Amino acid sequence: MSTPRAGALRRRLVEELVAARAIRSPAVRRAFLTVPREAFLSDVAAAEGLEAIYRNDVIVTQVNAAGVPTSSSSQPQLMAAMLERLRVEPGMRILEVGTGTGWNAALLRSLVGPSGEVVSVEVDSEAAARARDALRHSGHEVDVRTADGRTGAPDAGPFDRIIVTASAAELPRAWRDQLRPNGLLEVPLRLGAWAQAVVTLRRDRAHLRSVSTLTGRFMSLRAVDGDGGVPPPAVLAIDADGLGFAAHLAGPALKRMSASARRRALSAVLSDPRRSALTGRVPAWSLGLYLAIEIPDHELVTRLPMIDVGTVTRDGRGLALVRGRWEGGQRPSKPRILAFGDPRAEHRLTAVLEQWERCGRPGPDELRIDVTFRGPTARPVASWAVNKRS
After folding, report:
1. What is the pTM of this model?
2. In a domain, 231, yes or no
3. How does pLDDT run across 105-120, given as a tens digit for each residue?
4. Which residues are known catalytic residues?
């Protein structure tokens, strides 16, 4: 049962989400006010208190044997923004892929009302059991199933809306087939080695076409037997002995480089960089998304933990990175260019940045995703709805 203290904290969180424009409609506002997050995170509430539950933060709820997170309660701000773009209405039939704690399923149940239906599919049997109990005890009728989310729920469709709470590089045909014509599918898409965006797609006959895009990142969609939590290693990471993250590089370009070229890249990135700044303040995440999509894999490199993104020469003698607040949503910042060693990488990165400028600095709102199925899965095709300036 919710307490007055929990209610006050819930109202404060909702006010924060309204101020951030993540909550825009009365229906989503009412759902966040009436569905208690602590009912789905009772262990966290007992250990850390209600204040921890009602911070606008991700809460990790499960890790694998290697200590890698495999399940979580997503950031409330991102959840609210996703629900707004999903445009859920009373009486709709909803499929959720990735039940997690069950909180999002309860929010969906609140939005569809007594005449609607929510089916939620969770690959992890223990997580599904916990969510099922929490939903029942909190009074939310949701059909929670333990299954591979990639198969959906074929016996319960078609659905008006499908929402996926784990990232995918390819989309299963089953999701499209279980979606009504003109229905909406919302899914975090991995669009490259580093890029990820939450895309809302509309079913247009046999195709899926994007109608809106959010910045955000999710754990990877898992198969029934997968340990998961993150995508299978798509990049090669290298470290200098004893230097830790100070020299941690990753990126698909490193997979194509020789061992000696990788060592040269490490040596270069530990040197003093040439520094320059982009003109004006820009939404860093928009630029980061553009760079990660437009820089070819054979050139793309990132540096942790700052998540700088940029280019590297194949011989490892030069790197050029853009540093910005990539996890800061669309808040403007002043990204900087850091160039190391051979200037060829800097010239290449500069060319991509000039292209971004000519296109009018496109961000998520200008990103277009199309999905055409010719088999059991399809890879999204990204493009930019922009007019290049001369």
Report:
1. 0.87
2. no
3. 999 999 999 999 999 9
4. 74
